[in-house]
Specification:
heterodimer, A: Rossmann fold, Rossmann fold, seven-stranded parallel beta sheet, five-stranded parallel beta sheet, about 25% helix, B: Rossmann fold, nine-stranded mixed beta sheet, two-stranded antiparallel sheet, 15 strands, about 30% strand, globular
Chain lengths: ~300, ~260
């Protein structure tokens, strides 16, 4: 009997979780609103629970949580792992309440300790990493995408069709406007230039681009520049609500260093910060810094690097 | 429209010190502030009331310092407030907090919309939205970046990773706000002075019909084994003064580190 049930709206996330779940127990997966389930056996799913119900054709947190609660009961799973995307997170909270159990969100590490699953997550806005154990009989854990590596391990598992008792979705999707496809990969960048509110206008980002070009690096940004100003795409947004990066070299330009942002750069091997405010918190986590006007410093730095 | 806004007071995250030897956070002395995402939730509620009439009730669970945030919420435009500050509520985590908030909502009774932040600024777990919605058997709409109400329906633009999704639901609904939803107002001094005269109720677990083991640490289902700052050994070498000279020094240092 499978004791770990997995759900992720994205297959890549599901494969990552299946790969990890093999260490934690016997994995099963819930395939909701889709029929192509073969891939899951490639990653070691012993059982694939298929819920074919028209009410699951579009994601809705309440209905999906209902379906997963019923599949958790049918499978006997005590641990439910969910891909911690935005949809995954809103689902996980609702599911935990339906199961009457504890949950940890945005887990960045999982391990078995004395028969209990232990999860790590950022706390206090990223100041700390908390290690949590869920004490209820069942446990729901939403795991950050890319926490674990997807490794194939084909098995000849079983497909289980489940009859679900669902009600009509109460939230109706009227329209979906796809965001432009991601053009940047800040998570995989070896060299990363991060821009913040120190830039007065969008055109000035050319300075950062010149530096990125000289260093062959990728450009990332703080939440404000993507979400508020729309100067850059959200795929470049770094921080607790954005990407977590671990470049070899990180150069931070005009970023004050709010903890909600810096949690996304702590994995950097070397951090360089340029900011005119000597008291800016970014200097506390920098290896090297220049206290100065980025409009003066960055062109000079790019010029020297080009030579 | 009757709108309940669930607020959270959080420690000022910029002012948390880390003990160098143990990597433990030091919360003593860090002031408590109004959670950032909750301000967007409250601002939206006040705008809806300005447009449609009705009442905004600020609801929060917290410690003895909660009143400062409640006064700020009342100054921003909430009409009334409900505080759950009984020490018995403390330590319940997301599950215990959701249980208490849902019970308080039931006690308040009449409402069309419940607004909260997409996650709290400190833990950013975002569980409470789904838990409260489930406890009250209401639909949930998360990550709102635009919201409008027409008749008994709410229309929300949700901000997801891959798409902006426009959804509709019949009231009452639980909605969580992103920081892109609006720009919270700064209340004028006169509003701050008037705020303390607005009605503030305080409920105990007994007032909400909750037994001692349904709230606070006894209701907690997640135990934190440790909470430590990640190991950060940064050199913190700063160059100042002439830009050319500073760039020169930085490049020398980076070459030594084999950064390129």
């Amino acid at each position: 009997m499978a004791n770990v049930l997995i759900f992720s709206e994205q297959d890549t996330g599901a494969f990552e979780l299946l790969s990890k779940a093999r260490e934690l127990g016997t994995p099963a997966i819930a395939a909701l609103g889709k029929t192509n389930v073969g891939g899951y056996f490639e990653y070691g799913a012993q059982q694939v629970f298929v819920g074919e119900d028209a009410r699951l054709s579009e994601f809705n947190a309440d209905g999906y949580a209902d379906a997963l609660a019923q599949i958790a009961d049918a499978s006997g799973a005590t641990i439910v792992l969910i891909g911690s995307t935005k949809r995954g997170k809103e689902l996980a909270g609702r599911l935990a309440q339906k199961l009457g159990c504890g949950a940890v969100m945005d887990a960045i590490g999982l391990a078995m300790q004395d028969g209990k699953i232990v999860a790590q997550r950022y706390a206090l806005g990223g100041n700390t990493i908390a290690t949590d154990v869920i004490t209820s009989a069942r446990q729901v854990i939403a795991v950050m995408p890319k926490t674990f590596e997807a490794v194939k391990q084909p098995v000849s598992g079983e497909t289980v069709r489940v009859e679900l008792k669902l009600r009509e979705p109460r939230v109706k999707i009227v329209e979906r406007k796809a965001k432009p496809a991601a053009t940047a990969n800040v998570e995989g960048a070896e060299t990363l230039i991060v821009v913040g509110k120190g830039f007065a206008k969008q055109e000035d980002l050319g300075l950062a681009e010149a530096l990125a070009h000289a260093l062959n690096g990728e450009i990332g940004c703080t939440r404000a520049l993507a979400a508020d100003y729309h100067w850059l795409g959200e795929e470049r947004m770094i921080g607790i609500s954005g990407k977590k990066c671990k470049p070899r070299l990180m150069v931070s330009l005009g970023v004050s260093g709010q903890i909600q942002h810096t949690v996304g750069i702590l994995g950097s091997k070397l951090i360089v910060a340029i900011n005119k405010d000597k008291g800016a918190p970014i200097f506390k986590i920098a290896d090297y810094g220049i206290v100065g006007d980025l409009y003066q410093v960055v062109p000079r730095l790019a010029e020297r690097l080009r030579r | 429209m009757e709108i309940i806004v669930c607020l959270k007071q959080v420690p000022d995250l910029q002012q948390i010190r880390i003990k160098r030897e143990t990597r433990e956070p030091v919360l003593e002395g860090a002031p408590f502030v109004f959670g950032a995402f909750e301000k967007n939730a409250l601002e939206e509620a006040v705008r809806l009331r300005e447009k449609h009439g009705g009442k905004v009730i600020a609801l929060a669970l917290g410690n003895a310092k909660l009143k400062d945030t409640i006064i700020e919420a009342l100054a921003m435009g909430a009409d009334e407030a409900v505080m759950l500050t009984d020490p018995a509520f403390a330590g319940g985590g997301s599950a215990g907090t959701a249980q208490a908030l849902a019970a308080a909502v039931r006690k308040i009774g009449k409402f069309d919309l419940i607004l909260m932040g997409e996650g709290s600024a400190d833990n950013y777990s975002g569980q409470v939205t789904g838990r409260v919605a489930e406890l009250l058997d209401l639909p949930q709409i998360t990550y709102a970046r635009a919201l409008s109400v027409e008749g008994n329906r709410v229309r929300v633009t949700r901000d997801l990773e891959d798409a902006l999704e426009v959804v509709e639901a019949e009231l009452p609904v639980v909605v969580s706000a992103t920081s892109e939803l609006n720009t919270p107002r700064l209340p004028p001094l006169t509003a701050i002075l008037k705020a303390s005269k607005k009605p503030i109720k305080t409920f105990t677990p007994a007032d909400l019909g909750l037994a001692a083991d349904q709230v606070g640490a006894k209701a907690a289902v997640v135990q934190t084994l440790s909470n430590l700052a990640p190991e950060q050994e940064r050199k913190q070498v700063l160059f100042e003064g002439d830009a050319d000279k500073a760039v020169d020094e930085l490049l020398k240092a980076l070459q030594k580190e084999n950064a390129f």
